[in-house]
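FAQ: What does the model actually see?

It sees only this:
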Amino acid sequence: MPENISPVILQIGWFKLQYYGLMYIVAFAITYFLVVYRVKHEDRFGITIDQVKDVTTFIILGLIIGARLGYVLFYNLSYYLTHPLEIILPFSFSNGVQFTGISGMSYHGGLVGVIFAGWLYVRKAKIDFWKGVDLFLPVIPLGYTFGRLGNFINGELYGRVTTSSIGMYFPLAPTKELRHPSQLYEAFFEGIFLFVVLWSIRKMNLPKGTMLAIYLIGYGLVRFIIEYFREPDAHLGFVLFSFSMGQILCALMIAAGIGLYVYLLRQHRT
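And it is asked to produce this:
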């Protein structure tokens, strides 16, 4: 399937409109409208629709900046130390000047960026941070699903070689062998599955902020397992023993989620 899908919707000269960018727009739109739905139907967050619009803008900026800086820091720091302009400019200067778009985004960096940007806004607007977290977190995985679909259409972040009948050929892979469509695994389990779990428990009487702890643990566990089906980045390989960089970051994510849950539980009991 990836061999027969063009990632470009429209091209005019050097400008390309790609499915990946469109998926980001769809993801942001779905997240925004589901949050607005919750604000209108669950009268417990103390947040207005206008504030939802403003914080969404902050979150989008935090996601893009955090995801980009996360990729630079976690996945390709040595390269960008010698090509710093490529961090923020959509051009490659390695072999002349070539338009490449902003290539390379890190989920974990994006997560840090979203949390930090959200914190900045609620601090400025004097909104309860943990209520804001509980409002947004249950809907975020569904938006994230579309990002992974964009990866699949691009044929990037493909899986490891497999003999399974579900294997596919990815043109960008170094060898023409059947590989796991790991992007689809991630779209389902990190996106749809985690969304269903969080959406189902969103009205439970949990300590404020618990949604973030559950999200960190849930996403971390699912991603850690799926990394066994995903091809590690070629320039990194396995970072520690047989663990990829994604698994190391997910292990830290799980630990942070457990630590946060214990902290929130203790705060709730006092």
